[in-house]
Amino acid sequence: VTVATDELEVVVRRSPLLIEFRDAGTHQPINSDERPMAYDSKGHLANMLFDPKAGNFIAVSKKLGFDEHFYGLGEKAARLDKRRGSFVNWNSDTPGYTEGKDPIYQTIPFYLGLQHGAAYGIFFDNSYRSYFDFGRSSQQRAWFGAEGGELNYYFFYGPSIKKILNRYADLTGHMPLPPKWALGNQQSRWSYYPDTMVEQVVREYRERDLPLDVIYLDIDYMRGYRVFTFDQQRFPNPKALTDRLARQGIKLVTIVDPGVKHDPPGASSDGRYFVFEQGLEKNYFQRRSNGELFVPRVWPGESVFVDYTLPEARRWWGDLFRVYLDNGVAGIWNDMNEPSDFVDQTGKNQLDVVSYDNGERTTHAKNRNTFALLMARATYEGLERLRPEQRPYIITRAGYAGIQRYATMWTGDTNSTWDALALNIPMFTTLGLSGEPFIGSDVGGFIGRGNGELLVRSYQVSFLAPFCRNHKTSDGYDQEPWRFGKYYEDIIRKYLKLRYELLPFLYTTLEQAHRTGIPLFRPLLLNYQNDPNTYNIDDQFMVGEDLLVAPILKPDVTRRLVYLPPGAWYDYWTNRKYAGGTMIYVDAPLDTVPLFVRAGAMIPTVPPRNFVGERPDDTITFNIYPDDKGWAEGTLYEDDGVSPAYKNGGLRRTMVTARRDGRGFAVSVDVVEGQYNPGVRKLNFIVAGQRSTSITRVKT
Ligand code: GLC
Predict the structure, then answer these.
(1) Residues paired with residue 470 on neighbouring β-strands, in sequence order
(2) Is 413 in the pocket of ligand 1 (CB under 6 A)?
(3) Residue 285 DSSP class
(4) Per the CB 3.0–4.6 Å rule, which of 2, 352, 416, 595 could disulfide with 445?
(5) pLDDT, tens digit, 9 for 90 and up, residues 94-113
């Protein structure tokens, strides 16, 4: 049977069942089954699996291209190109993970294959423990399978990766825009308490002229780790605290883990716990197949988890957030949501937990990997209901495909080591290629003891990541930007300020991710898909189409090779122009991250500020980087930064072009979309490398 569209032909052989996807234009195969689609209840596939104990294993086996590269699969502690790798998806709490540790926190069963410049995507929509092997166990095949469920997968044909990411976002959901302040600098530690310490950290930031938008409360703000409570000694008046912080432009985010303390009336001397009592009464907590309450151990000790597959339980959970919103809390941090259980981190202890699951009453084998997704959904929908005039802001550690609809994510408990820093780049770019654009990692690393050099180099990666938050474990060194001395602090200040200057560019690029699914933080290959030199680059990245960053990822190193793709490039610091398609050697003393701007780009910037929205964007500078023909263009996206009005036209998109005109430049500024009115402001134009710019004509 052949099913054909304008772009794709799908040839299905019925017996044995074999499927081949072909390009409709050339009739060339893009992706072909290597053996019949398999459903195996007796483990016949054992020799091709590394965990054959599964009962109902389903699998698909594809011919492995001689030159095929693989990308995606969400959060993996692995390099960008997944060829010759094999992976498992089973959300797991894995503190201190290093390269090769698998699985870790998230499950995104979506990958891209790329061969001879043409890409396809496969989304295997199956939440059971799943396996992906990209030519690791065999020279002939790439295969994927799962320990249960149905064999449903979606095939996307590009040939461009950008088109696939766009379609994948259409299918699994587009990331909504977070509040604009989420792009600001964020600071956390396990844990800041009492309230006066939170304020002291903020005061240091302001006195030291370091920009900051967000501060976090980790688990010690609660009364005995009871979610939806505040410790009365440490935080006697949270509303007064958030009011004082708000006057300094600071937003407060509190952690809310899934573990609800198992706390029946009379069990504790320090009062009753309404969350446990309500949830128990309504029967919203997870139970084992024999009807017993499932009691994992997490921070509060014996705890219970909500069955988030129950719609009314999600609604109840979402409404609980009123406690935080009434206290002026701006966002929610969902952690430990794999879900982590100190009794046993492999999930074995949870296997007989039954969830409602649309009345199907399925087990943990199916529901583990979607637990965090549904918890984030409950949280998001709660915040949306309770505060509809503001965009919800949630960050999460675990997730499943679609998590981008509800939450920002960070890469969990990394180490404060150079190896962990180097892993940031392939992990961020991979997440971007997996439908998760809003990502980041604990700046400076979470576990252990770093130093000033590592912290500086870490900021030189994260100052251009969508989520930029310094966070540290309780027994690691203090790690705020000033903790290692003024020398390092001064450099970090330079990068934080640069981030705030670049906010118009970053926000414009983030809105593109929202609209198109194409991420902000990109591997080079996403922009240069036909250049095989980019296919394995793990130590450089791009921000949008225009900025190329080549950080230093090793100690004592102050020079490195940088690959510049075809085209021309400007060194951001010196404006020196380079021809691309080659590698260059650049100096990178500790205060410098190699940063290049694509010739032809126009980068909008604003003067630095202490926090997002401190003052109106009344002066916007367009930095013009002309290409060899004297041409540059750029876009500026604007909206109110906080409300969901952007979903209904409350935005403004401005296209700006510059063309060499005699000895000057002719500039044109066109509002191409939207009704948002940013007010009167001054537009500046600066041409890279020219001290005084003559703008001969401006057309608006
Ligand atoms: C987990 C989180 C970490 C947090 C800690 C205490 O380890 O990943 O970020 O600080 O729990 O809540």
Answers:
(1) 187, 443
(2) yes
(3) B
(4) 416
(5) 999 999 999 999 999 999 99
